[in-house]
Amino acid sequence: MDHRLREASISGDVHSLHQLLQEDRLLLNRPTYCCDNPLNVAATLGHADFAAEVLRLRPDLARELDLGGHTPLHLAAANGHAVVAKVLLGNSSAGVPGHELCLLRDMDWLTPIHAAALKGRTDVLRELVVGACPESVHATTGRGETALHLAVRSSSFEAVEFLVETVAAAAELLNSKDDKGNTALHLAVARRQLQTMKFMLSKPSVDVNSVNRRGLTPLDVLLESPNEQYGDMALGETIRAAGGKTAAELKLPPPAAVLLPRASRHQKPRVKHDEYRDTPGTLMVVATLIATITFQAALNPPGGFIPDDGKSHSSVSKVAAAAAAAADDQRPGKVVLGKELKYFLMFDVFGLFASLSIILLLICVSPRRKRMMGFLTWIMWAAVLSTALAFQCAVVQIYKSNAVVGLLSYAWSGILCVASVWIFFRFKVFLLKRVGWWKGRRHRHAGCGSLLVVKRIGVVAALLLATGATVVLIFIFLALNVGTAPASFT
């Protein structure tokens, strides 16, 4: 906009406007790329005569928006310039009637009546509601709020009183709800606006027990956050006197029936334990513990080592010591039980390497994504199972002749068999979900086309390997107990 025209708009000098137009008749017709036309400036500052002259020359400027998406009527309403608003609403030339301007929205989805209510501009509300556009009082914002909601938010009792007393459909306005189900009375109670609340309760058409989407009546809102500093006892007595009750007293349905959509049949109501189990901190602690146990067990094997004098310092039985002495290799430093601990060593080393791998990945990669945490959890399962197997292998070789140990070994083998089958089943479900073969639902990451075919081939191969590994583990469980249980318990 020309700087001279801008100065004339700021001062509201109509004579200067005419002089500028004599020099350049197209001055008002030139586009203003900064969205700051002379009518917006005049409406903001309240220059009614200047605005009327600009409207006479360029009536279409009444619909132009500024940088905030506001029309001149928005600016006049927010700043309380009722005379300018009347000028704008009286402009009906060039196809821009006043009632159409009342319904135009800015970038925040507010109409001019919303802008006036937010600022408590009662004079402008009168021009809008009584004059050009009575229907604009029912317009709602993007959050479902009416002008009455906004007047309560602005703590403007005069605006609230004017809207309720002036609008013909006052009952509809009083009981209108926003997107959260709150009426204007809910907001007045929440903000402890005693005068506004008493005024609304004096109207017989107000619904004093209206329930919002949280299942709360106005009295519930008051009791939810009590504060005697604002005289909550007096507020509660006022609501009670008007017939207000709590949702419990009205025997209304619980809030979940109002708020929550119906749960899908695939949703599980229980709390997911993965949220507190599969965390980096938890995995680090468990992996460190397993690594410590397996490391110590590898350096101090069951039965001990053959000392320099050929005698063992361990608590191994005499039968095991004699068997070690009869072996071909009796050099000092050799393990007393020797080859009998091959399964123990295999599972112990596997548990050690698995736990160390988890620690290394947690330190170097610092995984946060759910996929990575799921992968580490499967490694943790393998490490725990390997540690349990290593313990059983050692105990069975040391206490072969003990009846109690033999029976407990059978029981422990059964537990490990069940655990192996359960882990295999979980692993199978995990893989089948990845390729859309579980319960007829395709996983969102399954993919399509050739990629899906490759994934399914890999899943089949992984399932075959997992099946073989499970069978081998069960066979090892049974083989470890051969000859461990005595004929009788005595």
Specify the CATH class of the largest domain: Mainly Alpha
CATH topology of the largest domain: Serine Threonine Protein Phosphatase 5, Tetratricopeptide repeat
| CATH architecture descriptor name of the largest domain | Alpha Horseshoe
Helix content: 55-70%
Mean pLDDT: 77
One letter per element, helices H and strands E, the order comes to HHHHHHHHHHHHHHHHHHHHHHHHH
SS field, number of helical segments = 25
Q: What's the overall geometry?
A: elongated
| Terminal-residue CA separation | 108 Å
Give the percentage of residues in beta strands.
Answer: under 5%
Radius of gyration: 41 Å
The overall strand count is 0
Q: Low-confidence runs (pLDDT<50, min 5 residues)?
A: 257-278, 440-445, 483-490
| Largest beta-sheet characterization | none
Please give the domain count. Answer: 3
- Structural class, from secondary structure content? mainly alpha
CATH evolutionary superfamily of the largest domain: Ankyrin repeat-containing domain
Keywords, please?
single chain; 490 residues; mainly alpha; Serine Threonine Protein Phosphatase 5, Tetratricopeptide repeat; 3 domains; 25 helices; 59% helix; 0% strand; elongated; disordered C terminus; transmembrane helix
Could you describe the 3D structure shown?
By secondary structure, the protein is mostly helical. The protein folds into three domains: 199 residues, Ankyrin repeat-containing domain (Serine Threonine Protein Phosphatase 5, Tetratricopeptide repeat, Alpha Horseshoe), CATH 1.25.40.20; 91 residues; 91 residues. It is 59% helix and 0% strand. The protein is built from 25 helices and no strands. Helix 1 packs antiparallel against helix 2. The C terminus is likely disordered. Its main location: membrane.
